[in-house]
Amino acid sequence: MMNDLKEKGKAAFLEKDYGKAAELYGHAIAQDPTDAVLFSNRAQCYINLKNWKKALEDCTEGLERSPTSNIEEKLLYRKALAARALGQITLAATCLGEVLRISSSNQVARTQLAEVNSLLDHSQLQASKKLKSSLNGSQIPIEVVDSLPEKYATIVDPPTVPKVRQPANLILVEKMSEELFLDRPAKQLSKLSTNITFVERPAMLKLRVLDHLLPDVRARAFKPILELSKLDILELGDIEPEFLELFIDSGTYGLLSNLVKPTQLLERLEAVLSLARYKISLQMCSSQKISGLLNTVEDQLPHLLQSFTNILS
To answer: Where do the CATH 1.25.40.10 domains begin and end in the chain?
Structure first.
């Protein structure tokens, strides 16, 4: 029955009835959801229909089903086409790099990669110009005064600690930090600092403390970060430097420990790139942490180094 559906799907595809072919391959997938070939074939149908989102989803699903080298090459190439059409240029470059790793003689993929890298370079240049323009346009007047104006004095020495609504990612970090600091008595945490300004950002204080813990203890905080989906990241809306540093640290740990696939990490980094204040937060991140991730990529996955560098530079 399943083979019959495959043959009918192939026939519909050859007749250029891509909608019917996709439907038939869908019925075949329902009968055998482990067959990567079916996802690859349906992805091509969606590409022909210009349904890029479904094509990307099918390629991702197919790659998770242990395809043969030949099918993996097709899935990665088709995923690159869909990602490029959706504006996910870094992901497209990563997939094309993987295609060339499998088959260095694939000239079509090589040509596509050259085009995608050109788009990435242009995108990075435009982002850099935009950031420089915004910074140059912000002129801050400097005055010599005997005392601070009242509105600034209350910031330096606030009468009470105001209640501040935390951005979504601070709340997320709080939840992640609970496990790490669960066994620490509240009294011990209170001794970390008496500076009243830290009260407004307890999660960020915990992340700073994280840097001074033993590696095996720090690793406990990386697991929930590595489990974040692209949608989870996009829902953050904003990003703090401390969270970005933890994200970069977790990525390094995930690659070294084989807990995350390089393409998955790149997808999530691309999602982080789209968050508000990313460029500013990146400038405030530890260059040592960024170098640590890039060095790990260079050692283990040199063909992906440019894609990671484009995001973290």
So the answer is: 2-123
Instruction: For residue 3, give the nearest of 22, 20, 24, 17 by alpha carbon.
Output: 24
Both ends of the chain: CA-CA distance in Å? 52
Joined together, the tokens standing for residue 40 give 């690859």
Long-range CB pairs of 103-110, under 8 A, 24+ apart, other chains included:
103/73, 106/73, 106/77, 108/77, 109/77, 109/80
Q: For 2-123, CATH number?
A: 1.25.40.10
pLDDT digits (tens, 9 = 90+) for 63-107: 999 999 999 999 999 999 999 999 888 888 889 989 999 998 999
Cα angle value 257/84/251 (rounded, 5°): 15
What DSSP designation does 233 have? H
Buried b / exposed e over 106-136, threshold 16 CB at 10 Å, is beebeebbeebbeebeeeeeeeeeeeeeeee
57: closest CA among 32, 27, 88, 28? 88
3-state SS string over 144-171?
Answer: CCCCCCHHHHHHHCCCCCCCCCCCHHHH
Residue whose structure tokens are 């690793």:
219
By the 10 Å C-beta count (0-12 exposed, 13-18 middle, 19+ buried), 81 is classed as buried
pLDDT single digits (tens) 234-269: 777 677 777 788 788 888 888 887 888 888 888 888
List, for the chain, all residue ranges whose pLDDT scores fall below the cut of 50: 160-171, 173-174, 178-206
Question: Can you list the alpha helix ranges (DSSP code H) found in the chain?
Answer: 2-14, 18-31, 36-48, 52-63, 69-85, 89-102, 107-136, 150-156, 168-180, 186-190, 202-210, 215-226, 230-234, 241-256, 262-273, 278-284, 287-300, 305-312
d(CA 238, CA 234): 9
